[in-house]
Design goal:
Elements (H helix, E strand, L loop, with lengths): L3 E2 L6 E3 L4 E3 L1 E3 L2 E8 L18 E3 L13 E3 L18 E6 L8 E7 L18 H7 L2 E5 L4 H5 L15 H16 L5 E11 L1 H9 L11 E5 L14 H12 L14 H17 L32 E6 L17 H12 L1 H14 L15 H15 L4 E6 L2 E2 L5 E2 L6 H4 L14 H18 L19 E5 L4 E4 L5 H8 L19 E3 L2
Parallel strand pairs: 3-6, 7-19, 9-10, 9-11, 11-12, 12-13, 13-14, 14-17
Antiparallel strand pairs: 1-4, 2-3, 4-5, 5-8, 8-10, 15-16, 17-18
Helix pairs in contact: 5-6, 7-8, 8-12
Length: 526
């Protein structure tokens, strides 16, 4: 019988600000909803005040509001969880098998996906840290922080106190890491062995944290999962002041009174931001949420230089074989005969290009059905390889690369999609039904094993994997996680240029007409 304990014998931890009571279940201590900071709107986070007595840590904390409610999409592929929101969302969660400072366990600090606009520390079912704590003996921390206009609206033209408003979402993460540095030993973690890891937008935030001087001493290793975004892809094409003026106009606030934006109730603020973005979009201008270089954050390492500190931190970086292309259903492909597979590839890349891509794809992925060649990712992969090669050339610490390439027996066959690797790396394949496929247990063991060994020592080699060497200049070693795991050298050198050269032109799809009887919201695929 699995034991649950939340009474006078529950785990109680003394932090620098006061005592917290969690609960113990099945050999793991859980601490949810720990407030690590507070902040006024658009301003830098501050430490929380000390308290007396014992605070309850048995409930998840509020998540950051989103600007539009998501439409649940692809829940079979990526099961999600919803939770109440507040702009005061600086909360984190901790899982540990023993609150003993003497154990000094590796710490895995998870940053959720959703770009810089959405998501939360509990958004996906697979973000749960229980199994990593119980089975692998690490301390897991997951964190909420400010997003979208709450975390990245540039108000610097309207007052010195807003000097870093465009980066306060990242500043929240720095403050959370500072909390870990000061407190994680009480939960059994080693504050000198912290690995930050994240996927999609969370992976991008890992790269950004490597470029923030204040964060340099707060973590020791980095894992970037499908998170190297081409430099500039998240930049807005309107000026920061243009956007703020549109928001003020929507709320009928004079420019000289811009400070009043701090007190606009959240629903009205979100309405005004959305109205402003729509107005700018009609002018042909784009609004995106992302951190921007200033005296706080140096630069995107693909647009400038890696920080000296980042080059000294062991790094693992990778992506999945199909990312977003796998979300479009393609019909039955797993059982197609070879001539029909070839015809599919040539229909996508053209007769000449299709033949070349076929030959290169078969060399790169000899165990993969070639009908999935059209899904080969061209969004994250090129920037991921550029990041890996540049860092491997310049870094004093090792850099490791991976690709998750499994084809799932689902809807006629789906190659690994954006987020499909997360359950395995979290040792949570058992929580996601679609992961219960051939070799699922093996992948769950070796992928989580690689992450844990990397967090423990900086080397991802583990039982069940072939030798995985670090990348070097001119020798990019990729661990392919699949039904057969293989380490490949310069895996993409031939295939990627061909796929880029012969890919079909992008044809934007018209937005479907709105139906007032249908549910609203945007698709949720992260």
């Amino acid at each position: 019988m699995k034991e649950f304990v939340m009474n006078k014998t529950s785990p109680i931890v003394e932090t620098t600000k006061g005592k917290l009571r969690g609960f113990r279940y099945d050999g793991v201590d859980h601490f949810y909803g720990i407030r690590y900071a507070k902040a006024k709107r658009f301003q830098m986070p501050e430490p929380v005040a000390p308290w007396e007595g014992v605070k309850d840590a048995g409930s998840y904390g509020m998540i950051c509001p989103v600007l539009s409610e998501p439409m649940p999409t692809g829940e079979v592929m990526i099961p999600h969880r919803f939770w109440p929101s507040s702009e005061h969302c600086q909360y984190l969660n901790v899982w540990t098998d023993a609150c003993d400072p003497a154990t000094k366990k590796p710490v895995l600090f998870w940053i959720h996906g959703g770009g810089y606009a959405a998501g939360s520390s509990i958004e996906q079912v697979s973000y749960d840290g229980f199994n990593l704590a119980k089975k692998d003996g690490v301390v897991v921390v997951t964190v909420n922080h400010r997003l979208n206009a709450f975390g990245y609206l540039d108000m610097s033209d309207f007052g010195e106190k807003y000097w870093n408003s465009v980066n306060v979402g990242m500043a929240d993460l720095v403050e959370a890491l500072r909390w870990v540095k000061e407190n994680i030993a009480a939960f059994g973690g080693d504050p000198e062995n912290v690995t930050i890891f994240g996927q999609s937008g969370g992976g991008a935030k890992v790269t950004v944290l490597g470029q923030i001087p204040e964060a340099e001493d707060l973590f020791q290793k980095m894992i970037v999962m499908s998170g190297v975004i081409p430099a500039g892809d998240f930049d807005s094409t309107c000026s920061p002041k243009e956007l703020v003026l549109e928001i003020l106009q929507a709320l009928q606030i004079d420019e000289k009174d811009a400070e009043k934006l701090e007190k606009v109730p959240v629903p009205q603020f979100i309405w005004a931001v959305n109205k402003a973005c729509a107005a700018l979009e009609r002018q042909g201008k784009r609004v995106n949420w992302s951190p921007q270089p200033n005296k706080y954050y140096t630069c995107d390492p693909l647009a400038g230089d890696f920080s000296a500190s980042s080059l000294q931190k062991p790094t693992m970086v990778g992506s999945v074989i199909a990312e977003f292309t796998a979300f479009a259903p393609q019909g039955e492909r797993l059982s197609l005969p070879v001539p029909e597979r070839e015809a599919l590839v040539k229909a996508h890349f053209g007769e000449e290009g299709g033949q070349k891509v076929l030959e290169a794809f078969r060399k790169a992925f000899p165990h993969t059905n070639e009908a999935f060649a059209p899904d080969y990712d061209l969004f994250f992969l090129p920037a991921t390889l550029e990041y890996t090669a540049k860092k491997a050339k310049e870094a004093s610490a090792p850099v490791y690369n991976y690709l998750f390439a499994k084809v799932f027996d689902f809807d006629g066959g789906r190659p690994a999609w954006h987020c499909s690797d997360i359950p395995y790396f979290f040792h949570n394949g058992a929580l996601v039904p679609i992961c219960q496929q051939e070799n699922g247990d093996m992948l769950d063991a070796v992928m989580s094993g690689a992450f844990v060994n990397f967090a423990r020592t900086g080397d991802p080699n583990c039982d069940g994997l072939p030798q995985w060497d670090k990348c070097q200049e001119g020798k990019l070693v990729t661990m392919v996680f699949d039904d057969t795991c293989e380490a490949k050298v310069n895996l993409h050198d031939e295939l990627l240029p061909l796929a880029q050269a012969y890919k079909p032109a992008f044809v934007p799809q018209p937005k479907p007409a709105e139906d007032e009887d249908e549910e609203g919201g945007s698709a949720w695929v992260f």
